[in-house]
Design goal:
With about 230 residues, this protein is of the alpha/beta class. It contains eight helices and eleven strands. Helix 1 crosses helix 5. The longest helix has 20 residues.
Amino acid sequence: MYNVAMNILLIEDDVKTAEFVAGALRQAGYGVTHCADGEEGAAAALHGACDAAVVDIMLPKRDGLSVIRDIRAAGRTLPVIVLSARGNVDAKICGLEAGADDYLAKPFSVAELVARVQALLRRSSRQSDAGTLQVEDLEMDLATHRVSRGGERIDLQPLEYQLLEYFMRNRGRVVSRNTILERVWGYDFDPHTNVVEARVYRLREKIDRDHSRKLLKTVRGFGYVLG
């Protein structure tokens, strides 16, 4: 099943804790990818589509701090919250120095964890609004509205730009035509209209036509995915 909500990566080996946290995040409207060990979690963080990560420190196979260091070494800027049974100052410093954005000691309030995730995602969104979006060699400058691929400028109409920005902010995630209409066009629509299909076709022609690697794909029966 494809989920167009923001996705949270949860790396936690304790079954009960994982169930409580995942349930609370899903109730708050997020998708959740759960990994029970450090190796699986590192792979998901580096290669999966996630918007934030909640990482336990004591994990099988690899500890959480090494996972966070790999995330930062790879240049990934997703917000990371550490969960740890150690709540002393030295432990918190180690977590933050490894690259975490926040630190929550066990036992903790699940409601507080969800609130901290929401706060970090809001902050991350504000920061990205002032910078650039990038999917492989496709780049969008949010300040100048300049779009390029492989260094070559791409001229887009305003609605094409908005559509591409939505795809880039949801890279790797399948989005349905109905969701695109609601988020990009922002109005009620005739369910038989082909406006999305027509715009996606024109956008694909501009960003993919002269490149062997196609970025914008159709997932039959579900929608579209960029990446």
